[in-house]
Amino acid sequence: MRNTRQMFLAAGLVWLAAGAAASAGGDGDRTGTIPASTRVQTPSWSGDDGASGNPLMTAAAIRAAAANFPSCIERLWPLAARRGVSRASFERLTAHLAPDLRIMDLLDSQPEFTKAVWDYLDILVTDERIAKGRAILAKYGKLFDEAERTYGVDRYTIAAIWGVETDYGALAGNRPVLRSTATLACIGRRQRYFRDEFVAALEILHHGDVKPDKFVGSWAGAFGPTQFMPTAFKRYAVDADRDGRSDVIDSMPDLIASTANNLKKAGWQSGETWGYEVVVPANLDFTLAGRQHTMTIRDWERRGIVRAGGKAFPRADDRAFLLVPAGVQGPGFLMLENFRVIMRYNPAEAYALAIGHLADRLRGGGPFVQDWPRYERVLTRAERLELQQLLERHGFDVGEPDGRMGPKTRDALRDFQIRIGRVPDGFASAGMLERLRGDR
Length: 440
Ligand SMILES: [Ca+2]
Fold this sequence. Notes:
The protein is mainly α. The protein has helices at 2-7, 11-14, 59-67, 69-75, 77-82, 87-94, 102-107, 117-124, 127-139, 141-151, 155-166, 177-186, 191-207, 230-236, 252-265, 297-302, 337-345, 349-363, 381-393, 407-419, 430-438, and strands spanning 175-176, 216-217, 275-279, 294-296, 306-307, 319-323, 332-335. The chain starts with a helix and ends with a helix. Residues 239, 241, 243, 245-247, 251, 254 line the site of calcium ion.
């Protein structure tokens, strides 16, 4: 699941603003795109060159690959055969397969705006979604009991994934998974990755785990209420109701158990939470923030970090990293191992924070104690690019300026902030851009 999740947001994340990516609030190492099922439908491919500039994404390359689609599919037969798909199944399933070129627009859309982490949380963790999640937890209480017993995975986190990915199944997508993955396996810039997904989709249909008319999902091939990719389904899906099929679309026992199994295999620590909201002192060494610096809670406490709301940390020996998604002006978070586990489900910090927070709210917890800097405006793509170019002009290494706020850009921004005597939190605010412009 990991690779694809790095490239494509799940349906529940991306419906939230047509034309805008639900970006990971400053985490720029992946692209976000909106599945067509969740925005205004345009019936067909635009016919335009893709925005990535990748030679496989020009209109001419897409047309040429589409013309070769049947032979491309046929070339995948030996791989399918090695995975146990019969020739009869292969022919039956691929006979009427035609590419869905609209997916090329979705694969290569470059959103102009990204969302601030607080807007993102506002949209995903609502009173309505909390109420719906509690209703689901009550309705399927026995199944969650069993999943907790068998896999040791927290029920609230499973429910939160369900809620964030697809609003509890309401937004699971309606594109045929076989067609989407076949299209992406033969056309465009992600063919190598999607060959495996396509063959896994064939296997799923060959084995009859999911019925063909039910096998629909996001444009990238994620399906079911918790958005399994075909290869992740193969790895993690279980037949909890013992009817001979693992069905993560319509069988609630299979869905809940499979999602729990996925988290368990990703390293879930039983009985532990994902992390804590913390108050970060302005004089903290902010170069310690980020996933690469793990210390014990005790060490963080020594550096002046306290839990928001005044409670004590339950275990001082737990190891955690510090996340400050909105810089020194916003809340901080100390993240435990289970936060990384959630990020293995979908590697975006804002995603994992939304999951963790929704899980806490489902459990009965309150909203975050500290305010977000809502007065801060999120920079447009053009402004982010300008910020990178200005940092470069000032002699800071941002890598290749690409309009994304990746770790290198954040480090460069921190260095600039140190030079001008500001708190080096690496937060790309409009004020920082102004300052860089003024310093030209
Ligand atoms: Ca089953």
